[in-house]
Amino acid sequence: MNIERLKDQIMINEGVRKKAYKDTLGNWTTGVGHLIKRPDEDYLIKKELNDDELNIIFNNDLNQAIDDARKFINENSIDEVAFEIVIDMAFNLGYPRLSQFKNFHQALLEKDYIKASDEMLDSLWAKQLPNRAGRLSLLMREIDA
């Protein structure tokens, strides 16, 4: 896994904000797509993050997404870029929602990256986030092209 490429990709997909904002679902978010969901994080709603704080939160969230992606599929069983795409999806969706992508998972197991790309687009997630889903599905489609 190319961690710098992955970080850049997620930062493009999530955006970077040092001040909290409400996302499209009305949830408080800050940093690199960090959902403020625990009561002990409420202080983040009124705080402007410095670079160190932003990086700490981002790295913690990224490590969680990597763990979630590894629960979803063995990283050594698929192409490196495909696994980075799964991490990006885990970062955005969380494991419970990612785990519902059964046909996508099967396509990855079969190393059928075209079908995996199609399955990504055939989802509510793609309808809600068409730009992100489009970018990631195109990257998936280009594997072994």
List keywords for this structure.
59% helix, 145 residues, mainly alpha, single chain, 3-stranded antiparallel β-sheet
CATH class: Mainly Alpha
Order of helices and strands: HEEEHHHHHHH
Counting H and I runs of at least 4 residues, what is the number of helices? 8
Q: In angstroms, what separates the terminal alpha carbons?
A: 19 Å
From the 3D structure, determine the CATH topology: Lysozyme
* CATH architecture name: Orthogonal Bundle
How is the main sheet built?
3 strands, antiparallel
With strands numbered from the N-terminus, the spatial order across the biggest sheet is 1-2-3
The number of distinct β-strands equals 3
How many domain regions?
A: 1
Helical fraction equals 55-70%
Report the radius of gyration as a whole number of Å: 15 Å
Global geometry: elongated
Kindly estimate the percentage of residues that lie in beta strands according to DSSP: 5-15%
Going by helix content, strand content and strand pairing, the class is mainly alpha
Average predicted local confidence, pLDDT: 94
List segments where confidence is low: pLDDT < 50 over at least 5 consecutive residues: none
